[in-house]
Amino acid sequence: MTASDSQPHVVLITCHDLGQHLGCYGVDAVETPNLDGLADSGVRFENAVATTPVCSPSRGSLLTGRYPQSNGLLGLTHSPWWWELDGGEATIPELLGDAGYETHLSGLQHVAPDADRLGFDHRHNPEKDAERTAELAGEIFADAADDQPVYAQLGFSETHRSFDREPDESDDVFVPGYLEDTAAMREDLARFQAEIEYLDEQVGALLDNLEAQGVREETVVVFAADHGIPYPGAKWWCRDPGVEIALLMDGPGPRFEAEDPVEAVISNVDVLPTLFDAAGVPIPDRVEGVSYRDFLSGASDEPPRDAAFTQYTNEGDECRGAVTADWTLVRNFGAGREIDYPVAADPTSRAPSQPPGSAPRPYAQLYDRAADPDNLDDVAEQRQTVVSALSNQVRAWMARVDDPLLRGGVRYPYGRRAVRDLHGADAE
User: Is residue 317 located within the same domain as residue 292?
Assistant: First the structure.
């Protein structure tokens, strides 16, 4: 089948817990030829930032073009968190469906408890089998109507922590600088890298299936991780290792051809407007992200944003932040203790260990991204001018998105349910 004259097909590939742990992002120990090839043929965003270091709200930003505070999905959708998109929130499949696209979902989504909420025309492979998702990339286009553009969202559960595949013992292992280089850490990272290499194989099969259907050259392909890797100090944390993501785009036209990686900071809230601009679909007024189409095509020399904003909302451990080309600022709103990096915690632990008697976590933490990409050295005390300027930006952003932290605190779903239970099942 072929796309319509004015609208390309769109394929959005998502994965779990990958961060930027790919060969094309400088991690030479992992072999990812297919994703590296996608980066070479299209655009690799060097400084892509998730709105949050947690799966559901990050994916919610990707699908709505809106921040978690605005779309209501501030945390995970499953028990015991139970966050959901607000009722009036429209998603990419709904909006592209209204624009004439046939929309498909295969595999993982993790934005809504029920995938029907997201507005897809067709739902495939709820078992989330990776090889089946790669196959469906071809079948969807083989069965689609002629001259109707297709939106296919293909979600891989990999590389969420399970790590069932045995690593190649001859492979090198990359240990990030914020993790202590121990035997246990290396063994776990080797398994993680084996999962990444399996994911890369499936992405390669997926792209081959698009090619076999004759639609690869007229399809915008986006590959997006949801947040940082599943290790202490990364996932669940608003530090660079927690919010940095792989973001690759390829498709027809000069806007997706770049000889060099794009150094400008981009947020995953910007993916929707960029895609819609590329597809000739109007961007809804409610969208809070910005389009990078003109910047990618060379029509504009100035990147659309100079700071990407981040949030983490978990009871008693909230933070908000900003990432620029030079700095990462984290503003803490929940009690906690300072952590010494690199950490030697259990690799499967969600949180780094806190030394006995450690000082309270400061209200503001600042990291020099060029000098300290692992965010080991907090320089907030030495760079108060930078802290003040970035804090002003964070405060203004929080006001724009009506952040509940500015108006008395977050009402968590568990707490709301507990109050209803206290008053009885029929209570409001």
Answer: no
> Of the candidates 226, 24, 7, 22, which has an alpha carbon nearest to the alpha carbon of residue 95?
7
Residue 226 falls inside a structural domain: yes
Domain that holds residue 206: 9-297
The CA distance from 375 to 379, in Å, is 10
pTM listed for this prediction? 0.96
Rounded Cα gap, residues 68 and 269, in angstroms = 10
* pLDDT (tens digit per residue) in 89-145: 999 999 999 999 999 999 999 999 999 999 999 999 999 999 999 999 999 999 887
In angstroms, rounded to a whole number, what is the distance separating the alpha carbons of residues 30 and 25? 10
**Element holding 97 (H helix, E strand):** helix 92-98
- 360-388 exposure pattern, b = at least 16 Cβ within 10 A, e = fewer: ebbebbbbbbeebbbbeebbbeebeebbe
Per the structure, how many domains does the chain have?
2
Question: Is 81 a member of any domain?
Answer: yes
Whole-number Å distance between alpha carbons of 422 and 190: 48
Q: Virtual CA dihedral for 74, 350, 375, 323, nearest 10 degrees?
A: -10
Question: Do 348 and 385 fall into the same domain?
Answer: yes
Handedness of CA 300, 303, 305, 309 (dihedral sign): positive
For residue 159, whether the previous peptide bond is cis, meaning omega lies within 30 degrees of 0, is yes
Last residue of a domain, one of 269, 297, 325: 297
pLDDT, tens digit, for every residue of 157-166? Answer: 999 998 888 8
One domain for residues 241 and 327: no
Residue 428 domain-assigned? Answer: no
Domain boundary among 297, 331, 349: 297
CB 214 within 8 A of CB 146: no
Give residue 372's pLDDT: 97
Q: What is the CATH number of the domain that holds 401?
A: 3.30.1120.10
425 within some domain: no
Which residues on neighbouring strands pair with residue 307, listed in sequence order? none
- 290 plus 167 within the same structural domain: yes
CB 93 within 8 A of CB 103: yes
Residue with tokens 């891989």: 156
Strands (E) in 91-161, as ranges, are 102-107, 122-124, 150-155
